[in-house]
Structures are given as C-alpha cells and as structure tokens.
Amino acid sequence: MRDVYKGYVTGEKPNPDTHVIASFRFHARDAANAAQAIAAESSVGTWTELSTMKPRIRKRLAAKVFRLDAKNGAAEIAYPLALFEPGNAPQLLSDVAGNVFGMRELDSLRLEDLQVPKAYAKSFKGPAVGLEGVRKMLGTGKSRRPHFGTIVKPKVGLTPKENAEVGFESFVGGMDFLKDDENLSSQSFSPFEERVVRMLESVDRAESETGERKMYAPNVTAETGEMVRRAEFVKSQGGTCIMVDIVTAGFSGLQSVRNAGLKLPIHAHRAMYAAFARNPDHGISMMVLARLARMVGVDQLHTGAIVGKMEGSKHEVLGLNAWLRDKWHSFRPVFPVASGGIDPLRVPSLLAIAGTELVINAGGGIHGHPDGTRAGAMAFRQAYDAWRMGIPLEEYAKGHKELAAAFRKWGGRRIGVTE
Ligand code: 3PG
Q: Which end of the chain is more exposed for a tag (fewer CB within 10 A), N or C?
C-alpha cells in the first residue's frame, strides 16, 4: 500500500446524521489501498503528502472507509457533512463521484448508492408537486389508474403547427400527457415559443372536447439561464409542466429550473444515463441518479420500461419505482415513468409487472399505428381497459378495431424481460 493513502480507514460506524455514505464496488489489485485512495482523493488527500495539510483539516474533513470487503471489491465510505456545501448538487458529485473514477489504483469503480443525512437533504427543494400533485392536476387521485403519455414522433422535424395537430389527436385518442422528445429544443423547424403556444391551444381544445384534463411537458433543456427563461415562458402561457433532460443539462441546470420557484412539475428524461449506469462494473448506478434527481426536485422520472426497448432488469426497475414512491426524508414521492419501445400489446404485461402507479409513455407505439395517432392512442386505452376487466387482449380486439390493427402490426414482436 502507498503510505500516502494510509489512515483513511476507521473501525467506527459513522453517524448517518452527520455523514454522507457512499457504497462503492471496484476492481483493483490492492483493495485496501484502492478503497483508501477513493476516500483520500474524494475528500482532502492526493497522491503525495502535502506540506500544506493541517491536522485539523484531516481530522475534520477526511473521508473514511468504514467497511471493506477486499475479496469482493466493495467498500463503504463516510464523508463528514462539513465537506459539502448545502444545496449544491454538482459539488456533491465533484466530491464523491469526481476524480476517483479515473484513478490508476482502480481498474474499475462503480458508485452503487449514496445516503445523505436529513440536515443536508433539507437544503434541497425536492419535488414541487410529486406523484400525488401530478395525479391531482390530471384528476386521477381517486381512480389510481396509470397515466398514459406520448412523445410526438418523428422526434424532430415537425413544424409547431404539425406538432400541435399530432398532440391534439393524441389527447383526443386518450392520452393524458404529452412531452417533447429529448432532442427537441428550439431548432429552426420548431421554435420553442411557437411550439408551446400551439400545443397549449391543442390542450385547451382537447380538454373541451373530451372533458378530461391534459398535460404538456415542453422540453426546456438548454443553457441554464435560457432553461429558466423557457420554463417561465411556459408558465406565462398557462402551461402546467416542463421537461428537462436531467443528465445532459446537468444538476446545476436542473437546480436552476427547480429553484426558480415556478411550481411546475418537472418531467425528468434521463437521456445519456446509460453512458455511466449501464456497465455493472463501472460508473454510477441509476439508483444514485434517482436519489439526486428526487433531492433536487423532479416529479416524474424515467426508470425503464421492462418490456420495452431500453436495458434495465425487472428487479432494478421495480426497485427504483418502489423507492421513488416510498418515503425518503421529507421529499414527496416521484411518479415513475415507463418509456421506450412500448406498443399497446405490451400494456397488460407492463401493468401486471409494474402496477398502475406509473406513467406509461409511448412514441412509436402510438404514432406508428397503421391508422394514425388517434387510433394509436385509442389502442393503448383499449389495452388498458381489457387488462382492467381481465379480458384477454385478443378477445377484446375482436370488438375494437384500433387494437386489432395494433395486433396486425406488432403482434409478432417478442416481449423480452430481463429478470
Ligand atoms: C422517450 O422519450 O422515452 C422515447 O422517445 C420513447 O419513444 P418510443 O416509445 O418510440 O420508444
């Protein structure tokens, strides 16, 4: 072991009220050295002894390894609360998940979980309205049915007018919720303001036609100041939700939007999460991302569709969803979102596995319907009705032509679930 990393171990169990606790897994030739290197680099240490180091600094701020499983490459590290600036999410990451991922002492490193004390959690805003707030806005608090949402497709390219028309068809067909796609912001073919104004007109028209409440989440992702300006614009136009690509925008951007105090629910898209969460041996787990997102304050979060096109095992997604809905400090529960590769025929399997406290989002599975968007949305609601009444989908499709057409197009698609 390199001497410089000695002393970052403690036999004492840390007080969870005064420490942030990180759980790591790693591969390294010398596990004890590697674990202490993580503790050192992510708190007060570096590769050499420092003439500037003071005993008081080490005593007060050094992170300590308090559990080490050298055989399996696992360690838990406690970080004194004084290391962290309250209410600063990027700083938390620069600390516990900063340089350590690139250190030569480690062949690979994965941050599996992160526990934060109540006193620190309190310095963040958390979800503005949360799962129950979103349900209240859409009037589903009593029925507890799943929310059905769509992403306008093609992902980009439609004009605001075309986009709004697709939105109207989606809403009238039975969608509660509609969002922009993750790569749509304010390109030349779809300027943000015009798109928002036109889609909100569709929301109004669809609400009068159906008597149901509808919600649109425009993607405000941009440079931080511009994101806040766009969110304010949505609010000024009577919009009731916004969407943020929370990974590409970063936690600083997300915090700026959340802390602007607009009280608009934030739909969190996780585009790019798999760059760091997919490799089981290296990176940051989706659970850590979920904790950070909830703490900063998102109201709906993509966690994986289990039966869809994105990776994510049933075990992992159900664990994330349960945690999002559960108590955590004083933060409101978050609505889990299943999205990516869902068609109407997958709805019963998804509901049977994941339950109804869920937003089910579909793009291709609605706008790819052979008879168009409205029929695609209707097929989704028919699939839900069939499941709710315990009628096999094939049976229900006999009297519902939209579902029958969905069968003809997607009936051969295999539903693969990773346990
Ligand atoms: C998303 O935002 O989750 C995707 O755009 C979903 O699109 P899909 O339903 O066509 O896979």
A: C
